[in-house]
Amino acid sequence: MNVYNDVLIRSAPFDIEIKAKDGTSYYRQVTSWADGTPVGTRPTADLTIDSTVTLALGDLSRISILTCSRFDSDRIEFSHEAGVGVTVAIPCREVPVP
């Protein structure tokens, strides 16, 4: 099974963070999914999670997919631009769930 959109392919089960507008985070595991009802031309997915979250749609800030990852280098680059700020570059790699 795969959850997909324009840039993502993910096999179930996988972990997500559900972030409320008040800053509360709920961590859940997606155990299965099915194609949802499209919104306009955009596909959607109906996700089944391992425990209930009671949250009104208006109180939802975001849903993020969580992955296991590691730094892929011992080098971290900081690039300071006067009047703009600092850009940080850290090569990362997704790894299998331990």
Keywords:
single chain, 98 residues, mainly beta, 4-stranded antiparallel sheet, two-stranded antiparallel ribbon, 0% helix, 53% strand, extended
Question: What does this entry look like structurally?
Answer:
The chain has 98 residues and is mainly β. The chain is 0% helix and 53% strand. The strands form four sheets. It has a four-stranded antiparallel beta sheet with strand order 5-4-3-6, with no helix packed on it. The protein is extended, with a radius of gyration of 17 Å. The mean pLDDT is 85.
| Average pLDDT | 85
User: How many strands appear in the DSSP assignment?
Assistant: 10
Give Rg in angstroms: 17 Å
Side by side, the strands of the main sheet go 5-4-3-6
Helix and strand element order: EEEEEEEEEE
Taking the sheet with the most strands, its summary is: 4 strands, antiparallel
Strand content: over 45%
- What structural category arises from helix and sheet content? mainly beta
Can you count the helices? Answer: 0
